[in-house]
Amino acid sequence: MRLTPFYLHRTGSYAESAEKHLIPALASGAVLLLANLPLGEVLPDRWCLFAALTGLPCPFCGFTRAAAAMAGGDWALALSISPLTAVLYVLAALILAWHGSALLLGVRLEPVPLLRAGTGRGTALTWLAALLLLLNWTYRLILGAA
Fold first, then answer.
1. Is the pLDDT of residue 143 over 60?
2. How many angstroms separate the CA atoms of 19 and 32, rounded?
3. How far apart are CA 104 and CA 102, in angstroms?
4. Which of 131, 73, 88 is nearest to 139 (CA)?
């Protein structure tokens, strides 16, 4: 019985490992890096078409502020702004750790079949993501967040 959540494959060359793991590592690293940038000084004042038309914050309002708060170590503020952002931030860190370790070791890591996104699971993951976004938005609306 296999207890690890992955299969480790030795590759013939480092290029084979990089082909599989470089893009996800760079993408997740970029997300975490962007959370550390002082975007408040770069971006214009908050303006949202959805909020301008409805008077309500859009489902994505607060994600940038929450990610910046997490990057700064203020997890309590981040969770109060947008709990879903904390989940996405930790997920990005786990993805970076997974693919980054594979790159450092020069191996190819494959998740066990239960953890692989396959046919039929894509639809379930889409519905789960939509439900989490709706719950996060409902939380923000209940708190009166703008």
1. yes
2. 21
3. 5
4. 131
